[in-house]
């Protein structure tokens, strides 16, 4: 008698194929949505460019007409003043009445003037990263009247951002940073055209996006993005204003300025000229790990806006390419360093000019537009990635929940290896603070001096914020010849303690 049981294997195979088809279709849909967004942004930028070209056909000619008009008779002057109340520019008045009022305080300075303001209105600036640096930079560029401001970021607003990222608000926590900043900036100056790129920059997109702008501000916080942004600026001929900030210090540098073709030593150096090799991945700290003082990153973002305005308002001359009879004058960049608790707070370091063997901006360059757009350049691999610390066997680790159930008596010793500042924020009763020094020998010496390693027979538990430094400290104790008792690390540290044991534990 034939079996009546259903044939499961063909159905499983069909189900697998259907799932694969769904995943493929969803991936195609995501790509199409991204292409639609990029095309919409390009159309908007082109529209704004055409409007700017129509309204500012000749900056110098308009300025001359305005100046000539002021030399006419008093009767003519009265007529001109009355017509300045209109809402659109005219051949006599290249700015609207509102624009004269809004930007007048900066226009009366010779460093800006009318022509400088008109250049700002024509300018298109891209800000990559709308966080601690990008927020103040965007605010001051929008306030100054930059014509088109591109905002790029793939993150959402978090409560921990608000002490320093001044364009966001408590009511917009969870919102896209780009959308949050757009809402703030729109209320500040609705005359600016804002282009929203609410995603992270990738090598495949960089060229097509950067080509739409005149100037780029790097307001990101990781070497991978800094190298990518610099390479894209070199390939598209854009100047770059880059800054960074951590703890109480910040740095600022203007790169690829002037943005001459690769190989021309008269051009400004790029990021690879200054830093040919990235720092080790282990040495790179985020704001969440190292901390950041809000006004420090604010200072650096404001300085980025200042440098951008200086570049955009100055008179540009077409650079003559260097010939054999004309010796090139190398441009040397300067690194501005800020330290909030130093005196003086600012100092400048003179840097090298373009590197003759630079991989991005020399005649021997190996980085091309094709290699960038194709995605063949792996910036994460170039800069390295940090692997989670995993130096202890499973029997030398204990979960936060298990630790909380142990007897609270003198038989157990808890050593907290966070720094003193974090220990003062929150600590478990009865714990001993011995901050991890980064070196096993020096930390063991401090632990012995503190008495934390007395009574070698007692069970010892080591804890830190995330469970990394505590593993290193536990390993150092276990390798002591005189160690007789067991030593265990609290897995994932106080992060796990808050999730598994005490939800009221501060999440800082």
From TrEMBL:
Binding residues for ATP: 132, 153, 160-164, 177, 221-222
Pathway(s) the chain acts in: tRNA modification; 5-methoxycarbonylmethyl-2-thiouridine-tRNA biosynthesis; Cofactor biosynthesis; molybdopterin biosynthesis
Regions of compositional bias (Basic and acidic residues) in chain numbering: 62-78
Record text on cofactor binding: Binds 1 zinc ion per subunit.
Coiled-coil boundaries: none
Residues binding Zn(2+), per UniProt: 270, 273, 358, 361
GO MF annotations in UniProt: ATP binding; metal ion binding; molybdopterin-synthase adenylyltransferase activity; molybdopterin-synthase sulfurtransferase activity; thiosulfate-cyanide sulfurtransferase activity; URM1 activating enzyme activity
GO biological process: Mo-molybdopterin cofactor biosynthetic process; protein urmylation; tRNA wobble position uridine thiolation
Gene Ontology annotations for the cellular component aspect, listed alphabetically: cytosol
Keywords: ATP-binding, Cytoplasm, Metal-binding, Molybdenum cofactor biosynthesis, Multifunctional enzyme, Nucleotide-binding, Nucleotidyltransferase, Transferase, tRNA processing, Ubl conjugation pathway, Zinc
Annotated localization: Cytoplasm, Cytosol
Amino acid composition bias (Polar residues), ranges on this chain: 38-61
Domain Rhodanese: 413-506
Cofactor dependency: Zn(2+)
EC number assigned by the record: 2.7.7.80, 2.8.1.11
Family assignment from sequence similarity: In the N-terminal section; belongs to the HesA/MoeB/ThiF family. UBA4 subfamily.
Function (record text): Plays a central role in 2-thiolation of mcm(5)S(2)U at tRNA wobble positions of cytosolic tRNA(Lys), tRNA(Glu) and tRNA(Gln). Also essential during biosynthesis of the molybdenum cofactor. Acts by mediating the C-terminal thiocarboxylation of sulfur carriers urm1 and mocs2a. Its N-terminus first activates urm1 and mocs2a as acyl-adenylates (-COAMP), then the persulfide sulfur on the catalytic cysteine is transferred to urm1 and mocs2a to form thiocarboxylation (-COSH) of their C-terminus. Plays a central role in 2-thiolation of mcm(5)S(2)U at tRNA wobble positions of cytosolic tRNA(Lys), tRNA(Glu) and tRNA(Gln). Also essential during biosynthesis of the molybdenum cofactor. Acts by mediating the C-terminal thiocarboxylation of sulfur carriers urm1 and MOCS2A. Its N-terminus first activates urm1 and MOCS2A as acyl-adenylates (-COAMP), then the persulfide sulfur on the catalytic cysteine is transferred to urm1 and MOCS2A to form thiocarboxylation (-COSH) of their C-terminus.
Protein name per its UniProtKB record: Adenylyltransferase and sulfurtransferase uba4
